[in-house]
Q: What sequence folds into this?
């Protein structure tokens, strides 16, 4: 299994899953690719009001993953962004498309999916409970089922740019849904339709999420969260779509965990 779309965290508190960057199908380092929301544009203020960034509590200027508010005090993100982290290791940034202008919120608890598998990336989701609710928070609605035909989807994040530094501006890009059969052809047994879905331009590449975007939103045309940025081979490569945690397929488990947090 080749990982993922996180930025490596700095220090002893680094999550194990965040320490490995995506590799290409040929084994080349992810540094050979443009590490950003590939083919995207700057988001408008209020376009993704629920989006957050996960940052290092010891250096909040370093954001390494994305996420989304599902309650005023609860963030849904990828498990590989939080595994190995204590609440005191992480802060949440929210409130602006310019990451430098976001507010910083402390974390009270982290709950990782009980059946998350870091080797296979199945059930790649976790919840972050904040110490206080975000005033005026806007939450993202969750897909409650998987229709297996999502049409054009949109992914957003503050992933790093070609220069190797993080993007100050929130970026987004539209990505075509890729069928389970097509994704299985691309990734073989590594793709698990019960917990994952795929999106990207199979023929041409050029549009994708990448390092630093892990945990962030994949939404449909109605603004419903259908996926969480999880993993992929390289970034925006033809034949290698982005792989996302399938929120609709896992809705029962995710909603129960939110209710019990």
A:
């Amino acid at each position: 299994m080749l990982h993922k779309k996180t930025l490596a965290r700095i220090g002893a508190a680094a999550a194990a899953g965040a320490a490995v960057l995506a590799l290409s199908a040929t084994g080349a380092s992810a540094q050979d690719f443009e590490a950003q929301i590939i083919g995207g544009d700057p988001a408008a203020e209020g376009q993704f009001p629920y989006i957050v960034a996960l940052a290092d509590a010891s250096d909040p200027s370093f954001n390494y993953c994305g996420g989304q508010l599902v309650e005023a005090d609860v963030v849904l993100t990828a498990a590989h962004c939080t595994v190995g982290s204590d609440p005191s290791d992480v802060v949440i940034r929210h409130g602006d498309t310019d990451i430098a202008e976001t507010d910083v919120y402390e974390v009270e608890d982290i709950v990782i999916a009980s059946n998350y598998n870091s080797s296979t990336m199945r059930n790649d989701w976790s919840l972050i409970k904040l110490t206080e609710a975000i005033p005026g928070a806007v939450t993202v609605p969750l897909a409650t089922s998987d229709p297996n035909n999502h049409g054009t989807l949109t992914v957003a994040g503050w992933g790093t740019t070609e220069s190797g530094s993080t993007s100050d501006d929130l970026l987004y890009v539209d990505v075509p849904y890729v069928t389970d059969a097509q994704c299985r052809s691309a990734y073989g047994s590594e793709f698990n339709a019960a917990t994952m879905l795929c999106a990207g331009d199979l023929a041409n590449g050029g549009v994708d999420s990448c390092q630093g975007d892990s945990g962030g939103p994949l939404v449909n045309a109605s603004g419903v969260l259908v996926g969480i940025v999880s993993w992929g081979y390289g970034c925006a490569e033809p034949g290698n779509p982005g792989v996302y945690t399938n929120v609709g397929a896992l809705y029962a488990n995710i909603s129960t965990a939110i209710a019990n947090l």
